[in-house]
Amino acid sequence: MGHMFSLEGITNSIQNWLNSTFNSTWALLFEFVLVGLCAIGLFATLGLILVLMERRVAAFMQIRLGPNRVGPKGMFQSLADTIKLIMKEGLTPDGADKFLFNLAPYVAMIVAMLLLAPIAFAKGFQIWDINIGVLYISAISSISVIGILMAGWASNNKYSLLGAMRSGAQIVSYELSAGMAVLSIIVLTGSLKISDIVASQADGWWIFKGHIPAIISFVIFIIAVTAETNRAPFDLAEAESELTAGFHTEYSGMKFALFFLAEYINIFIVCAIGATLFFGGWMPLHIGHWESFNHIMDYIPSSVWFFGKTFFLIFLIMWFRWTFPRLRVDQLLNLEWKYLLPISMFNLLLMTLVAIMGWHF
Amino acid sequence: MFIIDYIKEVYSAVKSLLKGMKLTGYYFTHHKEIITQQYPEVKQTLPERFRGEVVMLHDENNEHACTGCTACELACPNATIKIITKFDVSPEGKKKKALDTFVYHLELCTMCNLCIEACPTDAIKMAQTFEHSVFDRSLLTKKLNKPGSKIREGVE
User: Fold this and answer.
1) Domain spans of chain A?
2) Count of A-B CB contacts under 8 Å
3) Greater pLDDT, A5 or A58
4) Cα gap A271→A116, rounded to integer Å
C-alpha cells in the first residue's frame, strides 16, 4: 500500500526491464536519455507553472486579477507567451562578441540543469546521490555568475556590463552567507550527502529540531538565495527601471527565454535545497515518537511533500519580491558584509555548540 | 553601546519587513476586492471633459452648424483637419461659401481641443469614444459631416 504508485517503484521497474532486455551498457545509455528527457520535461513544465504562478501571486498581492483571459482562469497565458517568444527573432547586435553572446544563455541553462542532479525529488527518486551533494550544489551554483558576466560582457552595452558587474558582486558576496547557513545544518547532520540529510530528519525537520539557530540560519539562507537568484528586492543586476534589464538587455526571442527560464529554474532549485535542508526534503512531517501520527503522515506520497515544501518556499520568495522595494548597491553590500555574514558566523558557532552539547532533539 | 544598537537595528528592520509582508499577505488572502477595472465587461463612465475624438454635431434634420470658415483648420497645430469648401447658390442667385467635406485625420490628432475652442459656431465637439483601434490606417481618416447634410438655417 502506498508503494504501488511511488516514483521509486516506477524507476526500479524501468531499470529492471532495461537490464533484462538489453546489456548493461545499453541499459545505462537508455537511462541517461530517460533522465535527460525527464529533466528537460521538468524544466519546461516548471517554467510554465512558475511564470504563471508569479504573475498570479503578484496580481493578488496588488489587489489585481492577473492573467485571466487565455484559457480557463488564464492558465494558458505562459504557454501563449512561450509560443510568442519562439516565433520572435533572436537578434545578435553588430558590436557584440558573437560567440560569447550566443554561448551565455546556454551556460546559464546548463548550470541550472547540473544543479538538478543531487536533488531528491521523492523517496529513492534522485538522479545522482553523490556523497558531497551539498558541496556540489554550492560549487556549481557559483558558476552561474559566469553565464551572467559572459552575457553582460559580450553584449557590448554599458547597461549590460553594469548589470553583470553588479550581479557578480552580489552573487560572490551572498554565497558566503548562504554557505554559512547550509554549513550550520551540515554541522547537525554530519554528512554532505543529500540522502543522509533527509534521513536525519526522519524524527522531525531541522527547522523544528535545531532550536533558534536553525530558524536564524533558515532566514539567512532564504535572504541569501533570494539575492543569489537575482530576484527583487535584490534585482539590481536586471533592474528594469534603471538598467533596462541589465545583462539580458540585448537578448531577444528564445535566447532571452533561456535566461528567463534559467532564473525560474534556479529559484526552484534553491527552494528545493532549502526544503531539503530545513524542512526534510521528501520526508513527511514526523514528530519524535508519535508512531501513529507519523504513520498517517506516511500515507501522503513523498513527492507531494517535496513539491509542497518547495512551492511553499517559492511562494515565500515571491512574497518578498512583491512586498519589498529594491535595495541600492551599497545597501546590498552593507546588508551582506555588516549584517548577514557576522550574524551567520555567530550563528554557526552557536549551532556547533548545540550540536556538540546535543541540545537538539 | 555598539552591540545593543546593532541588535536594535536588526530587530527594527525585521519588524518593519514583517509589517510589510503582513499587509501584502492580507491582500493575497483577501482578494475579493479588486481595485483594477475589468475593462471589457465593466466600463467606467468617463468624465464630461474627456477628449476622445472630434465629432460634428448634427440635429434630427441632418443639419450641422459648420460654415466652412476653416478656423479649426488654422487652429490645428499638426494639420489634422482639412476643410474642403464649395459654393452654394441661393434661390436669389447669390453665391455663398459652404462646407463640402470636413476631413479629420484621427491618427494625427493629439486631442488638444484647440479646434473646438476656435470654432465660432460650436459646430464640432469632443466625443467620449476611445476604442479607436482599426486594422487599416486609412480607416482613421474620417469625414465628419454626414452625407447629404447641410448647414442649419440662420447660422452665419
Assistant:
1) 89-357
2) 35
3) A58
4) 12
- What sign results for the dihedral spanned by CA atoms B23, B27, B30, B33? positive
Nearest residue of chain A to residue B10 (CA atoms): A339
3-class SS of residue A121: strand
Band the pLDDT of B114: cuts 50, 70, 90.
very high
pLDDT in tens, A189-212: 888 888 888 888 888 788 878 778
Q: Which of A300, A163, A341 minimizes the C-alpha distance to A240?
A: A163
The span from the CA of A40 to the CA of A268, in Å, is 14
Instruction: Measure in Å the smallest separation between the Cα of B11 and chain A Cα atoms.
Output: 12
Sheet of B81-89, strands arranged across: B81-89, B95-105, B141-143
Third-level CATH fold of B53-151 = Alpha-Beta Plaits (3.30.70)
What phi, psi does A90 have (nearest 5°)?
Answer: -90, 95
Residue A234's SS3 state is coil
Q: What secondary structure letter does DSSP report for A289?
A: T
Question: In this predicted model, what pLDDT tens digit does every residue of B24-34 receive, in sequence order?
Answer: 888 888 877 77
Measured in angstroms, the CA of A335 and the nearest CA of chain B are apart by: 10
Mean residue pLDDT of chain A comes to 83
In a mutagenesis test of the A interface, which of B12, B28, B35, B38 is the best target, namely the one with the most A β-carbons within 10 Å?
B28
**Contact predicate B104/B133, CB 8 Å:** no
Domain boundaries along the sequence of chain B: 1-35, 53-151
In 3D space, the residue among A110, A56, A75 whose CA is nearest the CA of residue A261 turns out to be: A110
3-state DSSP assignment of residue B73: helix
Taking all residues of chain B, what is their mean pLDDT, rounded to a whole number?
86
Task: Return the C-alpha cell found at A92.
Answer: 545578435
CB A164, CB A152: distance < 8 Å: yes
Average pLDDT over residues A243-259: 79
ipTM of the complex as predicted: 0.72
